[in-house]
Amino acid sequence: MRNLQYLDMSANKLSGLIPQELRSCTKLVYLRINDNSLSGAIPLSIGNLVSLQIMFDVSNNKLTGRLPAELGNLALLEHLNLSHNQFVGSIPSSIGSMDGLSTVDVSYNRLEGALPTGRVFHNAPIRWFLHNKGLCGNLSGLPLCSSVPMMEHHKARFQYSLVLAISIPVCIAIMFLVFSVSVILKRKRPQKTTATSTRDVLSVWNFDGKLAFEDITRATENFSDRYIIGSGGMAQSTKHSFKGGRLVAVKKIHPAEDNISDEKRFLNEVEVLTKIRHRSIVKLYGFCSLPRYKFLVYEYIERGNLRSVLQNEELAKEFDWKKRVSVARDVAQAIPYLHHECIPPIIHRDITSNNILLDADFKSYVSDFGIARMLKPDSSNWSELAGTYGYIAP
User: Which end of the chain is more exposed for a tag (fewer CB within 10 A), N or C?
Assistant: First the structure.
């Protein structure tokens, strides 16, 4: 089947080796053979499938051996999933040169050595690399690589990293559960004002643990109107710079008496954005949930939303057709990631020009997941009409 483009044989009871004959299917753009009992190594001929663009998934099998450097030939590939196998050795440096790659999951293997230096490995989530023999690199949650063998030192650092990787999601889950129960029962808890108590309810990552509640409130002069970069509904956004010049956007939720729906949007956005990471989806760095203050900390996107750019005559001229096609492509890559690569699937429900942000180079990012829905597997899903009129899907 030399013209075959999509091949999905996942979740069967296939065994044996990955057939060499797959090398003849040179027009494949999507290949999933995950969740089987396949064994042996990935054949070197996999490098012939240079048209693979969307997905190559061999996770949850019994594959062994080293990862072939020929995987780097799949330059167009966006999603690579090699997790839950028995691969050994290091991650080939050729994978780091795959410019189109958005996700690469090698967790639950026996890999070791330094991570490649490619773009996809920069600030990558730790869950892509957990439960291996000894991966290292300049990534939060992994031990730093050393030219001198220091096995005990690395082992201690790796164990510490695993503790961090496990404890942060657990803390977030506990916070989410406690706060949800407090909303349902309408229990009012006394506000704690000490520096220690405020830090306890601030979830932080990607800032080396130095992001502080007091730093944000002080730098924005208690969320003064002078720092507002956008507002709407029950929220306003401000810009904040940390020591060292790092800019973030802080979205503060205005308190409202018994506004359960607004509370739900806040918790919903936290839950969704802590589960996903994609180059075309805005990053959530942390959040705070206090009786008096509720805010989310995002990466700062310089130009603001697409609508404001289109309404600005000078910016609209600079925003030529090539840049507009690039924005459409970025958003088109983010949406199938949410629908097909997230478990459970996530439906944004409000893809509008207000919720697409542009950076200085007109790179686009999908934002505002306040009304997003996570679809429950193996059950029916129903929701009331939601979103912005003119953009609501049929």
Answer: C
Please tell me the number of Cα atoms within 13 Å of 66 on its side-chain side: 11
Catalytic residue, chosen from 35, 105, 350, 368, is 350
pTM of this structure:
0.44
Amino acid in position 228: I
Q: Is 350 noted as a catalytic residue in this protein?
A: yes
Return the CATH fold of 306-374.
Answer: Transferase(Phosphotransferase); domain 1 (1.10.510)
Would strands 356-358 and 62-66 be described as parallel, antiparallel, or unpaired?
Answer: unpaired
% of the chain exceeding 90 in pLDDT: 34
**Looking at the domain covering 6-145, what would its CATH class be?**
alpha beta
Of 198-212, 258-272, 318-332, where does mean pLDDT reach its minimum? 198-212
| Buried b or exposed e, range 133-142, using 16+ CB within 10 angstroms | ebbbbebbbb
Q: Three-state DSSP class for 123?
A: coil
Question: Is 306-374 in the same CATH topology as 6-145?
Answer: no
Domain boundaries, the chain: 6-145, 190-299, 306-374
